[in-house]
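G., the chain you wanted modeled:
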Amino acid sequence: MISELHLPLILIAAFVAIASPGPATLAIAGTSMNAGRGHGLAVAAGVMTGSLFWSSAAAFGLGAIMLANAWAFEVIRYIGAGYLLYLAVKSARAALSRAPMAQSRLTVTSYGAAYRRGLTLHLTNPKAVLFFGSLYSVGVPAQVPPAALLVIIGSVALLGAVIFFGYALIFSSAPMVAAYTRLRRWFEGVFAVVFAFAGFKILTARLGG
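Predicted structure as tokens:
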């Protein structure tokens, strides 16, 4: 049965989707550069938890149920867009602030808050519902036993952990932190634009159509 799951194709598709730049990877990168490795890893752990939730939900049919009930999907869509716009405002304020880097670091909250930021980003990401729903519907044949589904969930989770935690480690490295320190306002400006663009696209896109 495992040979029928097309696991390599599933992992290739998952790698492309997970590694591609987006709000979650941007949040990991920004937090890692601004607040350090620990907070970046905490955001990555939150994103990883959200990814694992949607992956498990899609594997056991919840994703299909949500897509069949438009109101539930729309709730997630609007909450997700609102949260991205909130992050855009925060980044824009940081970009406009002339406070030195030392003061900027003092505004960083706890590891728990960093974890919740990553978790919220992924739990309110409607494209995660679409991606994992498509991934399991295309790559997994019908009547797959639970043990085989757990193989897929575990494999995708491991891949996500390597990518998300890898981003945190890379962007918290000394060269990246030094670049952020020199160009903090430019970085935050880019973050603001990307978060705002992503939020606007989610608000206006017909993701279910």
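Confidence is low (pLDDT under 50) at residues 101-107.

Shout if anything looks off.
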